[in-house]
Amino acid sequence: MAQRKCGTATALQQRVKEIPSLQTLIQQTEQKLLSGQNRPHVEALPQQVTIPVVVHIVLDDTSMVTTAQVLSQIDVLNKDYNALNPDISKVPPVWQSIIGNTRFNFCLAQRTPGGEPTTGIVKVKTAPGQSYPISNAAPDVKYNSTGGSDAWDTRKYLNIWVTRLANNFLGVAAPRGFGYPSEQEGIVVHYTAFGTTGSVGNIYNLGRTSTHEIGHYFGLKHIWGDDNGDCSVDDGIADTPLQGNNTYGCPNFPVLDLCSPTYPGIMFMNYMDYTDDACMHLFTQGQVDRMRYFMENMVVTLSASDGCNPPAMFDFDASLSNISNPIGKICDPGFLPVVLLRNKGIQTLNTVTIWYQVNNGPLTSMKWTGNLASFAETQVTLPAANVGIGNYVLKAYTQLPNGQADQNVSNDTATSRFRYDAEVTLPFEEGFENDSFPPPGWDIYNPDRSFTWERVRDVGRNSNASALMRNLGYNTNDQIDDLLTPVINAQGADSVFLFFDVAAAVYSDPNSQRNKWDTLQILVTSDCRKTGEMLYSKWGPNLITRQSPTQTEFVPTPQEWRTDSVDLTATALKGKFQVAFRNISNSENNIYIDNIRIVSRSLNPLLRQNGVLLNPNPSSGIFWLTFYPWPQDLMQVSIYNVQGQLITSQPASAVGANNRMTFNLVNEANGVYFVKLIYRNGAKTIKLMKVR
Q1: 41 pLDDT higher than 70
Q2: How far apart are CA 354 and CA 424, in angstroms?
Q3: Are 505 and 385 found together in one domain?
Q4: Burial of 513: CB neighbours in 10 Å, binned 0-12, 13-18, 19+
Q5: Residues 478 and 586 in one domain
Q6: Taking residues 372-390, what's their average pLDDT?
Q7: Which of 467, 582, 584, 665 has the most CB atoms around its CB within 10 Å?
Q8: pTM score
Q9: Alpha carbon distance 682, 678 (integer Å)
Q10: Is residue 474 located within the same domain as residue 540?
Q11: Around Cβ 187, how many Cβ atoms within 10 Å?
């Protein structure tokens, strides 16, 4: 890494491009900071603020970042943010008087969000060579579900992810007030630019990357304002000189540029420039005022966090960490509650009583027995319950660990919210015309909590709305998002078919080879999405309804829609089911679906009775054999004339869509023919009359 690269401004620009409405939020936050940082006021913050830090080491070899390296970084932060860094004497005399001291102190967290002792360091092993792009401030490193590490409560902890960043970026910040989900707030730092020892590199070896990114986290801009050198944008700080562009390396003072052409020039030694670690020395008092105002008004809960205080320990402390079932949508009125029991006590847990209650219903209990070590946990399945259609809250709590009074009742209770929706029958239709989304009884699966299915107005197939996946702005490959129908009861149906309208486009040339395309799949699930059978999958040239590549957001014209159909019979008739419309994003362009229709079709009574139907009969030459159900033991079908001569024959593999086999006797003479169906254990003959 020859030159410093911070991804904060780049990630934010990309995010605004994908979600233009964020620009208004960012402008409002900036205006709030500008108006507040210079206004005389009495701070609600204490003079000294202590900030708990949790460091998530997310690497293929987590030992590359040692505890000593983490501690060295905490030491640097405490010195840099309190103007105690030894190299502060290198600040030119002209600026010595405006050196700022935030009075922010950083500590490695001593307690987890759940109140247990911790080192403040979390280690997660990734795939070999795994690196993370800075797009959207590197969200994949911030979730267990995508191979990263879930943030600790960002209201109470400063989360630092130490990992391998792609494309030579050293760090990226996601501050509050700029449109990032709360669980993504914090900073990400490349592991060779973290701390002052261990795996640290040669140039960015004094921990100043974290100092820089935490400056962004507390609302600071780059000192040059990210205006590409044209002096049009300032950093919003009065006592930092106007600066045209970033500064690399370690220049000699003074440095003049087009924006500050006279002495003393630009403040290249400021932590918010791009100079080498050895040449970064200060925050100004103006920057400190902005950061303290940001802390007081945006993240004040950090200052009141108890994360730096070791927790009290008790001999007997049984806790319910969470309820894993039921939660969200359930697909059956009967369910088994499942809770996570955790022993937070010093003594081994052998028995505990667990109670639960649904809404204000009766209490149900069970006595758990086992051998649960201190800070170990286990799943416990509670007695079954039943509910009707509606929304519910399940509350569960522990009592009498090892027969003793629980010494810390604050963590005994867990709750979950769930619902059981009415089933629907066929025919079923949905055109997304009503404002509620997902529609009643529908559900969305959005594991990365980013882009997902949404309702869009004024775009539809002869309608006023449709469902949309914005793949153009979804800059994460192979992410799955499901839109699921209500539970459907097709009892009594002979066959079930899905029809829906689709419109799609791609960003890339549709003729590109080996491109990763957005994919639309249709799955049928009979167990509330635990498993599913895929019945439809289209991508790229097979999916799109606009043939030309489209680099702007695709909005279909009335002619750019297509109706697709899926035969659901084989899976839908096994029992109650849901249909999942699955989007797999690869950053191409938008996919729309509309006018969803799931219908049943009745069998001809003769087909139901006999298992096979020849139609038409008499025939002019072309006729079909239709089977019900699929003829698993059929070997072949042969046709003979009245003289017993073989006219034609087809193997069982010729049975195609809709369980149908087609024959053509147009060139044969009129008269009587015999259609012989040969099975493994017998045969059946049907008489056919051919007429002109």
Answers
A1: no
A2: 36
A3: no
A4: exposed
A5: yes
A6: 97
A7: 467
A8: 0.71
A9: 6
A10: yes
A11: 25
